[in-house]
Structure formats: structure tokens, C-alpha cells
Amino acid sequence: MSETIFSVVHKDASSKARTGIIQLPHGPVETPVFMPVGTNGTVKAITVDDLHEIGFQIILSNTYHLYLRPGTGVIDAAGGLHRFIHWDKNILTDSGGFQVFSLAPFRKITEGGAKFRSHIDGSYHLLSPERVVEIQSILGSDIQMQLDVCTSYGTNYKDAEKALIITDKWLKRAKSAWEAVTDDGIYQGKLFAIVQGNFYKDLRQRSAELVVAADTPGIAIGGLSVGEPFEVFTEYLQYTTALLPEHKPRYVMGIGTPEFILEAIEQGVDMFDCVFPTRTGRNGLLFTRQGPITIKKGKYEYDFNPIDEECTCKVCRNYSRSYLRHLYRTGEILSSILASYHNLYFLHDLVRSARRAIQENRYTSFKKDFLYSYKSGTSKNE
Amino acid sequence: MSETIFSVVHKDASSKARTGIIQLPHGPVETPVFMPVGTNGTVKAITVDDLHEIGFQIILSNTYHLYLRPGTGVIDAAGGLHRFIHWDKNILTDSGGFQVFSLAPFRKITEGGAKFRSHIDGSYHLLSPERVVEIQSILGSDIQMQLDVCTSYGTNYKDAEKALIITDKWLKRAKSAWEAVTDDGIYQGKLFAIVQGNFYKDLRQRSAELVVAADTPGIAIGGLSVGEPFEVFTEYLQYTTALLPEHKPRYVMGIGTPEFILEAIEQGVDMFDCVFPTRTGRNGLLFTRQGPITIKKGKYEYDFNPIDEECTCKVCRNYSRSYLRHLYRTGEILSSILASYHNLYFLHDLVRSARRAIQENRYTSFKKDFLYSYKSGTSKNE
């Protein structure tokens, strides 16, 4: 059996939610945890000092992007990604598979791997399961993801099954490669397998069984939050999570709104990431406990209140909605800096509150109360 | 005689350079001083925490921009510019005159004032000398500038003289308005007059005499560093500075390169501002003691040294040229953040070193040594 990196600390009495701790090479990570995304080796518009200040113990970065630019040669010579970007806590890297599907102008999937053209300079590349493990070990990722075949919402059964079969073959190869690369104990990153199966329950079950059998340190649920209705997301999240063992961390990729995060936590998911808080922040959408607000609106011109009265972040302590609206309208970089900081702080705080609610066996009412205010507040009246 | 806000602390034995202290409503300012520019109420890509960390005691902001957006109504309701932008040290605002000349798509100068169209929405506005004083007092500027008529390098004698005459009339009106607005002691900002006269020595002299007679707390030298050759800049700077009284702070507007700053200090100038360090930083030009470097160049791909070995700023302590090149090439906002921070820190440190050299009567050799390295170093070999 693979090494145990996860311990459940407390299970909520009112739901499947749980708190836990993941032990990783760059320190422990308390779960449930939201991981901000640093695609190119920086969380956009945020310094590592700010990440420390907010309290993040892990961030995500993108193998596809870093592999293409600056390239693994540069990061290897720098002594790994942590040193390159000056971040001494944990880094999870994705496999690059999703970006091959969403960004590359050309791609061809064979059993060998994913051949694609770079969206930057058009050059050809092949990412095999083994190469992806190697790249992530050069990066020094604390958690690395297997290469998988992504399918979109609406994919037919046959294609979804084909993707599942290749993903499973790639998992076995990834695991062998990962065992080889960690054999000497110098690189200690943990491999996560990915459950696929699109929106077909028998395929989800089959994929989950294969993933469980592969016995990697952690398990991700892929192919959710890809455009399906919220109810479908919930249904498949619940269905898939129930197929996974209790003692391994569960990671749902690409969810970043309070609604999706709170739902995932309720189903017993431990980890999630998304560009949503930073991307929408740069576009002037700011989280509040009464729902998100669009800061450019005229109603905030003379509004000298903080973004969120209850928020204790430095943006809310020091700046008014009026000033933030002004920064957004004048296109100032400080607008992106402050909005990203606040949105990340808000989500980090939400997840911390969720952890506390789980400890106190009141997660269901916590979630209900938060979403009642979040969905009925300012955003409805804007 | 007007109130004294400036005291000379030490005069360099080898040049006209001097150290001093300006007493302002938001604390003392040690001179010589470089003031970063926060056009829209933020120094671009820099937080106020960073400004404090570097050690700035005064920043500049632009009346023209703030008057148009968010408008004086908003800043007034916010309780002034300091509270609006959350900056508790000093702010100098320009008069808006220069922006009317450089940005407005239409402008007409009469004795009454400068009529112009907004570059943002095309609306018509009139800035009179009195209105400009009023706006700056609403902003709560610690130093406010009189409205003046700017002329470009190459303006003929007659037009330069005409501009000088109007500028003088506006000065007298500005001074009356400023005396009225400070009469109750609530607003305590200091008015600076501006010497014009283009590149005609007799006009410079006439303007200087009028300015000296007006007896404002401080004096600016306008119309320099507007595209003239360095030798012409030096000649007119030297000529004009010699016409000014010793006991008032001297401010040269719009200079931000080490060469121009060190030259100005040598001529006894106390204050300067420029967007240069932040604007060029955003464009990937980074100051080093061996001259500026263009970070995007291929030679920095595997360069894991800091921007400047001798620099003690947090960017140089924590990040490599290789990483900064990567951030620049990927268009990351962090590139602008780190480059702006380093360039401002570098100039602040340069001016602090200049102050120390003046105290120790070795300014001339300090300047010579710095420029020898700066001009013969990396930038030449890039």
C-alpha cells in the first residue's frame, strides 16, 4: 500500500464534510483547502509575501505553461520551481493535459501520449505520462498529477470510455515512472491519480475502481465544473466521491466560487483550485458576504465603505469601494493587486470558517447561512 | 515675508549641492528628495505599504487627472486625497497645466485661464489660477503648484515671453487665492511658484525675479527636461538655480534618470519627480549600478543573479534576473510590481547616498564615481 499522507482530523456530524491534514514536503496543509493558481509561476498580481500574509500553505502552478516557458531547463538550473519563484511552501502542479485540450491549436492523443503544438510559438511537443512525471519532478512539485485525457460536457459514451481507458493506461505508466523518480528519496513529491468518466455513472465507477486500485497517495476528480448545470455537478460529485476511500485526500479541479466550494466540502472533498477569484478580481468583481459586487458601477462612486464590512483583510481595512472603483476605471494595476488580494483572502477565510464549522459539527447550517446571505444580498439588488 | 518651511542642513564643500529639511503638514521631508509619481492617486503597480517600506516621505499626484476622474467631489467627500488613497505622508500636486498642454485634445490659453477638452470624455473645462488653488486645497495637497503656461523646446522668443507674462499674472492671482484658502489655518498646504522663460536667459532671469518677488514658500524650475540636449539642460539649470534664494526649496519638475538627478543635486536642486523609474520598469528596464539592463534579453535566461548585486531591496534579495525575465515575457503583473519597486528603491537609495556624500563634503567625487560605473557598465555591453 502506498504511503499515507493524509489524516482525517474530524468528521462533521451533519454531512460528509471533514477536516484533515496532508503532510507534504514543504509542510502540512490543513484541509479543506483552497489553492490559488499561479499559472506562470506567480499567482497573478499577488506577491509571495501576500500569499504568506493571507496564510496559504499550498499554491498550484501549470506544467504546460512552465514547460513551454521558461522551460524545464531554466527551472532545473534555478534549483527547482520553489527557488525560482521564491515560495517555500507547497506547490501542486497539474499534468498539462487540460491545457493541451484547451489551449493548444493542434493536438493528437495516442496511447503514447498527447502530441500538440504550442499556443505560444507553434512548436510541436509530445507529453507522455512518463515525461509529465519527469517534468513535475524537475519542477519539484509537492503534489504532481498524472497525465489524463480530458473530455468536455456532452462527449458521447464511446469517446468518454476511450478517454477513460487511455487515462488508466497512462496512470499505470505514470505510477511506475513516479516510483522510479522518487526511489532515491531526493524528490519526494506525491502522485495523484485522476478519476474521469465524463457524465456516465458506470464510467465514473469504473474509473474510480481503477484509480483506487492504483493506490496513489491522493485522488483527484477530473471532468467536473466543465460547463454542466450546478445540479449535474452536484450529482456527479456526490456519486464519485462516495466511490473513494476515506483515508486519501480528494481533490476537485477547477472550482472557485463559494457555491461550488461549499458543495464540494459538504460531499467530503478536501482540495480545490481555480483562477476564478483572481481572474474575476482583475475584471472588477469583488466577493462580499452579501454576494459579489461589480465595482465599476456608478452606485459605488460615493460609497466609502469597505468592500465587505465583516472582512478583516488589509484591503477592507484601508480602502473604500469608491477608491477601488476609481482604480478600476482608471485601469490602474493597483486595482488588480487589491482585488486579487481581497478575493483570495475572502475564499481563504471562507474555507477556514468551513473548517471551524466542521470541527463544531455544524457544517450544514454554516453552509446554509452563508449561502442564504450570499445569494440574497447585494448581488441580487445591484 | 512668507513662512519659512525649509532649512539647509549642510552645504557640500565641493559643489553647490546641499542637504536640507522641508517641514510639511504630513511630516518632514529630507532633501535632496526624489518623489515618485502617483498620477491617478496611486504610484503605478506599487502599494502604499511598499512606499513606506522604501522610505518615501512625499509622493506626487496629478491635479488634471484627479480633477477629471474621480473628480474633486468624490475626493472631498472622502475627506481629502490622503484618506482617499490611504497615504499618511506628504503629497505634492502639480497644477494640471502641463497635462492640459500634453494630453488635452483642445486647449485655449487666455488671461482668464486654460480652457480645454478632457482627453477622457471630450467635456470642456476651464482651469483658472484660482480654481487650481481651490482644487488642490480640496485634495489637501501638502505642496501645491501654481497654474503656469508651459512652452516646448524650440518655442520662439515672443511666445516664450508671452507665456512668461501670463504665468506671472497667474502667480499673483494664485498667491492671493492661496492666502485666502489658508487663512483659517485648516488647510496648510504650501504654494510653489514656477520659473519659466524657456531657453532664453533674459526671460529666465526676468521670470526668476518675478518669482522671487512673489515670495512663495518654495520655487520650482519649469520647462526643463522637455527634450533639450543634456548640455542645454545643464546650462539652463545652472543659470536658473543661481538666480534663486538659498533659503527656499528648489524643485525641478520631470527629471528621473540618475544622470539628470545627480546633475540637479550638484546645482543645488532639492526636489525632483518623474514617472521614468516606474514607466521604464513596466517596460522591463531595470536600474543597476552598472547602468540599466533590458530584462527581456536572451542573455538573462539563465542568469540567476539579482538585478543588482549591491542592491538591498527585497526584489534583489529574493528574485533572479532569470525569473524577472520570465515574468516580463509572460506579461505577468508581478513583473511590473517587482520592476517598479526595484527602480524606485534604487533611485531612493541613490538620493540617500547623495545626501550622505553631501554631509561628508564629497559630493563631486561621489557623483563622478557613480556615473563612471553607471555609464561604462553593463548597459554599454548589453
TrEMBL record, chains A, B:
Protein residues bound to Zn(2+) = C311, C313, C316, H342
What is a biological process (GO) this protein takes part in?
A: tRNA queuosine(34) biosynthetic process
Question: What region holds the tRNA-guanine(15) transglycosylase-like domain?
Answer: 15-375
Give the pathway.
tRNA modification; tRNA-queuosine biosynthesis
The record's keywords, sorted A to Z, are: Glycosyltransferase, Metal-binding, Queuosine biosynthesis, Transferase, tRNA processing, Zinc
Q: Where do the TM regions start and end?
A: none
> Its catalytic activity?
7-aminomethyl-7-carbaguanine + guanosine(34) in tRNA = 7-aminomethyl-7-carbaguanosine(34) in tRNA + guanine
> What's the cofactor?
Zn(2+)
The record's InterPro entries line, in alphabetical order, gives:
ArchSynthase1/Queuine_TRR, TGT, TGT-like_sf, tRNA_ribo_trans-like
Q: Where is this region: RNA binding?
A: 254-260, 278-282
Question: What does the record give as EC number?
Answer: 2.4.2.29
Enumerate the residues binding substrate: D94, S95, G96, G97, F98, D148, Q196, G223
Q: Active-site residues?
A: D94, D273
* A GO term from the CC aspect: cytosol
- Textual note on the cofactor: Binds 1 zinc ion per subunit.
Name the domain of life: Bacteria
Question: What GO MF annotations does this protein's record show?
Answer: metal ion binding; tRNA-guanosine(34) queuine transglycosylase activity
Give the matching Pfam families.
Answer: TGT
Family named by the database record: Belongs to the queuine tRNA-ribosyltransferase family.
Q: How does it assemble?
A: Homodimer. Within each dimer, one monomer is responsible for RNA recognition and catalysis, while the other monomer binds to the replacement base PreQ1.
Q: What does this protein do?
A: Catalyzes the base-exchange of a guanine (G) residue with the queuine precursor 7-aminomethyl-7-deazaguanine (PreQ1) at position 34 (anticodon wobble position) in tRNAs with GU(N) anticodons (tRNA-Asp, -Asn, -His and -Tyr). Catalysis occurs through a double-displacement mechanism. The nucleophile active site attacks the C1' of nucleotide 34 to detach the guanine base from the RNA, forming a covalent enzyme-RNA intermediate. The proton acceptor active site deprotonates the incoming PreQ1, allowing a nucleophilic attack on the C1' of the ribose to form the product.
NCBIfam families hit by this protein: Q_tRNA_tgt, tgt_general
Q: Could you tell me what this protein is called?
A: Queuine tRNA-ribosyltransferase
This protein's species is Gracilinema caldarium (strain ATCC 51460 / DSM 7334 / H1)
Organismal lineage: Bacteria, Pseudomonadati, Spirochaetota, Spirochaetia, Spirochaetales
